[in-house]
Amino acid sequence: MKNYLFDSSSKEPFRLTRTKIDLFLECPRCFYLDRKLGVKRPSMPGFPLNNAVDNLLKKEFDLLRENGNAHEIMEKYGIDAVPLKHPELYIWRDDVKNFIGASVVHKKTNFEVCGIIDDIWVNERGEFFIVDYKSTSTSKEISLEDQYKKSFKRQMEVYQWIFRQKGFNVSDIGYFVFANATKEREKFDGKLEFDLSIIEHKGDDSWVEKTLFDIKDCLLKNEIPKPSLSCEYCNYLEKVRLAEE
């Protein structure tokens, strides 16, 4: 695969996805093993139900996009914007399945930073609002304060950074559209019913460029970083090593 492993002698931009940036922040050791040595973490199962919800939401917003209309959920939350109609939107959200999405080359590190968005909304001033769809099933109040949802915020902020680098006027405000599958029905009937809600996030992408420099420093080293204390994978391997000894 093109640009799969980091090669310090290559002049070609090294592709760095949003998920790999998150991997570095989670565990530099796992990131180094993956991007430089080609040793990937064990794969996770796919999420076909989540993907189905994403696709249906895209279709729903696309119907409104054509006529420049806002969705009723946007009006409910007082969001003064409409789904963006742009000739490159299909590329940014990877409708073409090239697994790149929106990308920009950070010249100081020679990284091609890329990420696949779900949607963009725009107001009358041409200001972009990055939008991400999320699926869940919970009776609790949905928030962004759970520990694992820190990655949601970073995801949004990387996208905001990418589109600012591409020259667009991007709002600090982004929106998560949550589709919450209810469990309160008397019977299944072969259908899931979802309640839609929107959570606003005020992003701060000031950390992104520093992280790119940290990633470059990591990849240029000839030694594997130490295990992260919070990394489940590294902790598992360490326990296996101790058990074998």
In short, what is this structure?
With 245 residues, the chain is of the alpha/beta class.
Explain the overall architecture.
Helix content is 36%, strand content 19%. The protein has helices at residues 18-26, 28-35, 48-65, 72-76, 89-92, 150-165, 206-220, 232-244; strands spanning 14-17, 82-83, 102-106, 111-115, 119-122, 128-136, 173-181, 194-202. The strands form two sheets. The protein has a five-stranded mixed β-sheet. Strands 1-4-3 form a three-stranded mixed β-sheet.
Low-confidence regions: none
CATH architecture: Alpha-Beta Complex
Counting DSSP H or I runs of 4 or more residues, the number of helices is 8
Query: Roughly what fraction of the amino acids lie in strands?
Result: 15-25%
Q: What order do the helices and strands follow?
A: EHHHHEHEEEEHEEHH
Strand order of the largest sheet: 2-5-6-7-8
Return the average pLDDT rounded to an integer: 93
Number of DSSP strands? 8
CATH class: Alpha Beta
Instruction: Write down the overall geometry.
Output: globular
Whole-number total of structural domains: 1
